[in-house]
Amino acid sequence: MAVADLSKTRQIHLTLRDRIARGAFDRDGGLPGEQSLAAEFGVSRVTLRRALALLEEEGLIERRQGAGTFLSDRGKPQPIAVELADVMTHLVEMGRTTQVNLLEFDYRDPLPDVARALGLKPGERVQWSLRRRLIDGAPFSFLTTCVPEDIGRLYTRRDLARRPLLALLELNGLAADHATQDISAELATPEAAAALDVAIGAPLIAMTRVVHDASGRGIEYLRALYRPDRYTFRMALAREAGAAGVRWAPAAREMAGADA
Q1: Confidence class of residue 67 from pLDDT cuts 50, 70 and 90?
Q2: Mean pLDDT (whole number) for 5-26
């Protein structure tokens, strides 16, 4: 296969994979026919079939002889979205409807940025955990969590494997009062790629959340990586008039992804 053909095949593969992730195709009606897709991309059906073969290898589509190309169960993602206005309720619900793998659980010295975020004093350690959440048996989030050691001693490895962290904190008399959250994007490291079942270097949603109690003490540092085809952040907006004119502002019912 020529280099130019490889490049075109890869472009078509990535374009179709993005459409599948965005739900652009009918979940039950299948993809457009090969002739139609080949004409759209300006390639031969041979080149198109190579791109479809890559999608089939990833488990996103099924090609049925004489019937066409259809989305597989894996190609029909069900993204998770919960209301920010009632995070705790939805975190508990998430604990019931998804599965979690507790990969690591330890007590260790925090990284400098974690110590600063939680307001830890020199020498204070954290309870550190690494978890993976799955929905319908497929991984969607890879979570690194740190809490001050004295708080981390309130629950066990077994507890964390069975309940969302914020629910555990609440059970032990600690209430989350406010938080800061940053959302960005990054490429999958080998560790994250293995946990989320994606290629090394695949784009991921990255979220860092620092949770505080009413006194302002940092009680949780969460670093989460998400597969964008299985997890989305959403915010409801409304047009609002103000001193600077009409602008978009968060509506009363904000929507966003949540994890703990």
Answers
A1: confident
A2: 78
pTM of the shown model: 0.69
Give me the chain's average pLDDT, please. 82
The C-alpha atoms of residue 256 and residue 67 are separated, in whole angstroms, by 38
Give kind and range of the element (H or E) at residue 172.
none
Nearest to 174 by CA among 207, 144, 156, 148: 148
Dihedral, 225, 226, 228, 233 alpha carbons, nearest 10: -100
Q: Give yes or no for a contact between 210 and 220, defined as CB atoms under 8 angstroms apart.
A: yes
- What's the pLDDT at 96? 45
Which residue, 52, 75, 98, sits at the end of a domain? 75
Place of tokens 């998804």: 98
3 state DSSP class of 245: strand
User: CA 106, CA 149: separation in Å to the nearest integer?
Assistant: 10
Q: Residue 105's closest CA among 122, 126, 120?
A: 126
Quick one: tokens of 250?
Answer: 């968060």
Same domain, 36 and 51: yes
User: What domain range includes position 243?
Assistant: 82-256
Half-sphere exposure of 31 (CA within 13 A, CB side): 28
Mark whether 248 and 130 lie in a shared domain. yes
Paired strand residues for 249: 238
Q: What is the pLDDT of residue 30?
A: 79
Supply angle C-alpha 120, 125, 130, rounded to 5.
110
* 93 or 119, higher pLDDT: 119
Q: How confident is the model at residue 31 (pLDDT cuts 50, 70, 90)?
A: confident
